[in-house]
Each structure stands twice: as structure tokens, then as C-alpha cells.
Amino acid sequence: METLSIYPGRGIHGQVVEAIGRRIVSGKEAPGSTLDLDALEITYDVSKTVVREALKVLAAKGLVDARPKRGTFVRSRSQWSLLDPDLLRWQFEEPSGSGLLDDLYEVRIIVEPAGARLAALRRTEEEVESLAAALAAVDEQADAEAIIEADLAFHRQLLEASHNELLIRMEYIIEIGLRARDVLVHTEGHRDDFLPPHQAVLDAVRRADPDGAERAMRQLLEQAAKDEQQIKNRGGK
Amino acid sequence: METLSIYPGRGIHGQVVEAIGRRIVSGKEAPGSTLDLDALEITYDVSKTVVREALKVLAAKGLVDARPKRGTFVRSRSQWSLLDPDLLRWQFEEPSGSGLLDDLYEVRIIVEPAGARLAALRRTEEEVESLAAALAAVDEQADAEAIIEADLAFHRQLLEASHNELLIRMEYIIEIGLRARDVLVHTEGHRDDFLPPHQAVLDAVRRADPDGAERAMRQLLEQAAKDEQQIKNRGGK
DNA sequence: TATTCATTTCTTATGAATTATTATTGACCC
DNA sequence: GGGTCAATAATAATTCATAAGAAATGAATA
Q1: Whose C1' is closest to the CA of A38: which nucleotide?
Q2: Which of A81, A101, A105 to mutate to test binding with chain B, by most B CBs within 10 Å of its CB?
């Protein structure tokens, strides 16, 4: 799986971007507060250049705004480019990011069934085959993490078959959130529950049945939500 | 209306970001090709600092990737952060961006009815009132551009009432696309067609009727699509 | 009230030192 | 002789230190 993130921890610059970015996202730097460039320089033990390039990147993500005389200050949350992959990752990895995760589930149940519908209408034969292969690959995985990745790959390929670039990107966003969550739905016990709904989606897509694909995907997600709720309740006791 | 864009043309830096960004988005810089930093320095008549800060920003948007020894090169389109507000604006303002606009309409008819449903479930009394005010404001506008802005404001406020942060951001994206398109649906003749469907959405939201809100929004969008198609056909002849 | 002016802070600039990655080379086993 | 591996050199980005420039604010002044 290729990540969309640009900073694989390589170089000092990326680390500073991520450190400051996470501080802002987590609320440690309050919106409206001004950032002290000299202080950052000392805190992260880097030169002005690095600090200011990092702030430029954060400005590109809408997190900060630099104005002459007024200083560089943190923008309010509503101004952030919340759909930026890095920003999403930082958010979801925050302990307080569960609210956004709920939002994500809602978006998922809106987007994915619609995507399945379009996929059923537009998929090529090759895409049906690779979808089938992706589904088969889930069964071959051993550990939970690999299963999750394979599952995500299936959903990603399905949305790609919708041939709608914006939907595909939204699926990437959904992936980031699902990957960041701690709850692992795919335990051994649930493997039997997993395959049939996915197979149903695949079948509908294969026979180019938009209504069926949409319905099957909705059922799949509702079932998954139910399973997860069960696990959460069990774990919460 | 506040833009999410970070570069209001202020400063040389932003201009270089936009210039190079647009070249890449438009395909003038082929994916995989390496960018010559010295050449850019000369082309835009700025120093190394500006060029490299601009490239850092573009890297944050996933457009380029800089590697020691290999150079700075353009990433493939699939790696771009397509949902970035700036990137979307550049795309939509390209003549060749009509494919993405079609995608956008599809997303809109997926997201907005679902958003209307959630809004009906969660809106506060204050939100109903400001929605009503937003709709009333549309009627007061004189020129086409102002009407469009007022219309967008209505849709934006509706999605905000869904209280789902991700949906709200998607609406921002939709806005960017709609604002960039050249076709102006809201000509004088269509004003009568405009109000009733919007009123229907508002009424459903007011009486907390999710099914009604979803249906009304879907009808609104389908009607709008039909109108636009008509205009396009008329203009095309 | 309007204008000027000094201050503050970001912005741009420059060039050199540093670091990281890759390609090359040569040595060493198979 | 062919292939793998490690040391090396070349290359380009990265980082750094410093300084001059531009812009906005707010106070002092007319």
C-alpha cells in the first residue's frame, strides 16, 4: 500500500512539520494564538529556514497564517484543510479524535453504497477480476493487520471502479481513518461474517446490478457497524 | 464568503506556488519529469529560497517529490491531494477540468441529499432560522453572481446543520467547483424555478423530516441538472 | 481627522556547509 | 566468469547564518 503522506519521517523538516502540526491539531496550540518563531527554532533545535519552511507547509494546509507585523498565528479549526491526508492522520491518531471517526462512519455509509452503484454501472471486466482477486486475498491473510489491509484494498478497488476521481479520493480518506482506529473488527471469530456480504457486493457488481450493489454495500456496512458495536460493548465492560 | 485558499496573491511566494502548481495540474509539466530548480529561479526571477519554499508547499499538496541525488520531480496524478482546495481550484479553472466537474455533480447528488437528511435530524432552531434567512437573501440579490453566492451559502449552511465535519468540508469542495464553472444557471428566467425546491428542503428540515429533506434535495439537484443541461444545449447550438 | 513615521515582524535573498541518497567501483565469494 | 556485497565518490537537496527588503500597525504629530 502506498501512502499519500509526503513526510515518511525523512529529514528534519518533515519532523518539525509533523510536530508543530500535531500540536495544533491536538489543541495544544490554541487557535488565534501566535507562534513564536524564535522559540520554535530553539525548541526543535533547527534554523530559521527549517522553521519557516515548516510553517509554509502548515500554511498550505490551512493550519496557520503568517501576517507581517501581526505574527504567525494558528487559524481556527474551520479554516483547516481537514481533508488533507496528513491532517486527517494526525486527527485520527489523537485520542480525542473519536468524534471525527463517528463522522467518518457516517460518510462511509453515504459514499460507499453510492460508489458501489456507480462501480456496477461502469466497471470493466478487468476490474471485476481484480476485485475478485482482492476478495480472495483477504482469505489468505493470517494476521489481523493484513486482513484489514486486504479489506481496505477491496473497498478501494471497488471505488476505483466507479471511475469517479473525487469518490476515489474520499475512499482514501476513509481508509486513513479506518487504518488509524484501534478497534480491530476482523478477529478470527468474525471471518465467517466477513466473506458473504463482500461476495454479495462483488456479485452485484459483476452482473452490473447497481441497485443490488448499493443494497449489498449498505448491508455490509451496517453489519460491520453492528459487529464493531458488539466488540466495543464487550471491551467496555 | 471566506476562501479556504491560503494565497490571496499576496507576496511573491504565493505567485510562484500557484504558477508552478497550475503548470503541473494542467499537464504542462509531465508526471515523472524533473524540475530544474535553477531554471525556475530564472523563470520566475526569484531567489532559491522562494523556489524551494514554493516546492515545499507543492510537496505538501503531493504534487512534487524532492529526493537527494535524483532531483525534484512531478508526481503522478494519483498521488496528488486532489481534495486540497487550491488544487481543486486550479483543476476546475483549467479548460480541461470538465471531467472533474462531472465527477463533482455526481458527488453532489450523493452527498447533499444525505447531508439534508442529517440536517433534518440534528439542526438547531437557530440553524433553521439562519437557513430561512439565507433562502430569503437569495431573492434580494440583483446580479447573477450574487445569487450564486447566496445559493451556495444556503447549501453550505444546510450541510453545516448536519453537524458532520467531513460532510461540511465536502460541501466546501463542491462550492469550489460550482463557483469555478462558467455556466450560470441562475439567470432571470429561472428565478421562479429556484425558490420552490429550496423552500421544500427548508420546510422538511424545519419539521425534522429526514426522508422529506433527502427527497426534496434530490429533486432540487435533479431539476438544477436538467435546467443546466437545457442551457448547455441552447448555448451549444 | 488625516498624515507621517518608527517599530515590529514577516519576506526575500545569498552563499556556504552539511547531509542523504545513489551510482560506481572494486573486492570478495560462489 | 558471474554475481553479491561493501566501501567510495558524486550529486543534489537540505540546512544554516546572516542581512537587506517590504508591509502593516499604532503612536505621534500636524
Answers
A1: C9
A2: A81
The residue with cell 466546501 is B172
Using alpha carbons, list the distances in angstroms from residue A8 to A5, A169, B46, B50, B175. Answer: 7, 20, 29, 24, 32
Q: Residue B93: left (phi > 0), alpha (psi -120 to 50), or beta? A: alpha
B94-236, what's its fold?
Four Helix Bundle (Hemerythrin (Met), subunit A) (1.20.120)
Flag if B166 and A103 touch (Cβ within 8 Å): yes
The C-alpha cell 457488481 sits at A205
Which residues in chain A have their CB less than 8 angstroms from residue B56's CB? 13, 53, 56-57
Tell me which nucleotides of strand C come within 7 A of a protein CB.
7-15, 19-23
CB contact under 8 A, B2 and A65: no
Q: Which of A99, A104, A167 has its CB closest to that of B107?
A: A167
Cα gap B179→B149, rounded to integer Å: 8
Q: Report the pLDDT value the prediction gives residue A8, as an integer from 0 to 100.
A: 40
Nearest Cα neighbor of A191 from A154, A229, A227, A230 is A227
How far does the CA of residue A169 sit from the closest CA of chain B (Å)?
7
Amino acid (one-letter) located at B166: L
Which of the four pLDDT bands, split at 50, 70 and 90, describes residue B2? very low
Question: How many Å apart are A26 CA and D5 C1'?
Answer: 46
Interface contacts A/B by beta carbons within 8 Å = 106
Q: Are B94 and B136 in contact (CB under 8 A)?
A: no
Query: How many residues are present in chain A?
Result: 237
- Mapped onto helix, strand or coil, the DSSP state of residue B172 is helix
Contacts from B44-47 at CB under 8 Å and sequence distance 24+? Answer: B44/B12, B44/B15, B44/B16, B44/B19, B46/B12, B46/B16
CATH topology of domain B12-79: Arc Repressor Mutant, subunit A (1.10.10)
Residue of B56, B104, B118 with shortest CB distance to A56: B56
Per-residue pLDDT of A110-163, as tens digits, reads 999 999 999 999 999 999 999 999 999 988 887 888 888 999 999 999 999 999
Condensed to tens digits (0 to 9), the pLDDT of residues B151-202 reads: 999 999 999 999 999 999 999 999 999 988 765 555 555 667 788 999 999 9
Domain boundaries, chain A: 12-79, 94-236
